[in-house]
Amino acid sequence: MGKRGRKKGADGEKRRSLLLQVSAEEFAKNGYHETKISAIVQKANVTQPSFYLYFQSKEAIFQELVAIFQQKLMTLVQQSLLESGLEKSTLEGEITERITNILSFFKEQPALTKIGFYLANESEEIKSQMARQIEQNLLIEQENGYFRADINMHTVAESLIGIIERLTKTKLLNGVTKPEQLANEIVRLLLYGLKS
Known about the structure:
Elements: H1 2-30, H2 37-44, H3 48-54, H4 58-79, H5 91-108, H6 110-119, H7 123-143, H8 153-172, H9 179-192
Helix pairs in contact: 1-2, 1-4, 1-6, 4-5, 4-6, 4-7, 5-9, 6-7, 7-8
């Protein structure tokens, strides 16, 4: 009997994950208001009562998707802090790798990214939270001597969010540019500017 309960639990987790995945795709494609629970359950091949076993409402599943995106993104941003004692010659590569990690997450989870970064009411707060964390990272990195002392890191953080937000939409999610290439372009622009 215990074996059966575990299988049912595992099946339940699979069904819940499938509902989250299908919901993300539907919200990303149709927007919040146009997405219907009936379409989600049909594509997930479950019954409507099954949906309500896992989620109270359309709003509840949408909010969970937003929370998943926010938590994963903030973990990546926190991990992007450069450790102290790096050789200056490795700086460009280190920064590029950290931005690549964030952009790769966006590329691997396009529906979740569209929801959390663009569609959700909370998307502006998520980007503000991201900017605050990046600014904190930059201030520490500035203290560690990686960046010029006369640069306002609030401006840099806000600019970086704007760059990432726009290029994710215009180059990354539509497959024009790979995460590594885009990260490299962003880092070279910010580190070296436009001057020849």
